[in-house]
Amino acid sequence: MFEAVIFDCDGVLVDNEVVLHAIELEVLAEIGLAYEPAVFKARFMGLNDAAFFAGLEADAMARLGRSVVAEIKPVMEERYAVRRDLIGEVRGAAAAVAALGGRAKAVASSSGVASLERKLRRIALWAPFAPHVYSADLVAEAKPAPDLFLFTAEQLGVAPARCLVIEDSVNGVRAGIAAGMTVWGFAGGGHMNDGMAARLSEAGAARVIADWTEGADLLGALQP
How many structural domains does the chain have? Predict the structure, then answer.
């Protein structure tokens, strides 16, 4: 049924979303732009940096009456750098990737090109995917638009309908569906909870994988 599997990176392969969200929410709260964590994750997860900061800027203008991006961006980046050592592999991700054997696979992420390579090398998952590691920097519109997934399928030489996408964000699920692909939600990242998993189903994920123990079995059993 599926000729290729396309993985999101953050929260699916690299367990960094819990760290990133904590930093982002604390910096925003410090300037008076507080969010309910569940609302923040549902709205902003899966967006690239440009869309993320544009959304925050719009909220700041509406709620605070001023621009904030120039103020918050360097603070977030500084705190990301300090806590980078807390970031590792989502438990079982490497084994799940290995379960695919020789099947075509790729990473399609909203992360920037340099950041994406750095994170995947950190958890020893660059080599299994390279050269098929693609950033939203390479396309006109990032998730939830389908551009990145369609570009990835083209690079793999696989029809979109024959691609399976693994995503942990509502925006990512929507992007995969818009590309004409089957999407499985992934709920095994450290940032996930039952409410977020339910949102993946509501967004159209065909199934939601609880963790990579389950996911490795499912990927290993895929029919050509």
Answer: 2
- Asked if pLDDT for residue 92 goes beyond 70, the answer is yes
Provide the token pair at 154.
């083209």
Structural domain of 134: 4-16+87-220
Both 129 and 26 in one domain: the answer is no
Are the CB atoms for 91 and 212 separated by under 8 Å?
Answer: yes
| Cβ neighbours around 108 below 10 Å, total | 33
Q: What is the mean pLDDT of the chain?
A: 92
* Confidence grade of residue 223 (pLDDT, cut at 50, 70, 90): low
Q: State the DSSP string of 9-24.
A: -BTTTEE-HHHHHHHH
Q: Which runs of E-coded beta strand occur in the chain?
A: 4-7, 14-15, 88-89, 104-109, 133-135, 163-167, 182-186, 207-209
Q: Is 32 left (phi over 0), alpha (psi -120 to 50) or beta?
A: left
Strand partners, 89: 14
What are the b/e assignments for 167-185, b being 16+ CB within 10 Å? bbbbbbbbbbbbbebbbbb
Which of 113, 107, 166 minimizes the C-alpha distance to 137?
Answer: 113
The whole-model pTM stands at 0.82
Q: Is the pLDDT of residue 115 over 90?
A: no
CATH value at residue 142: 3.40.50.1000
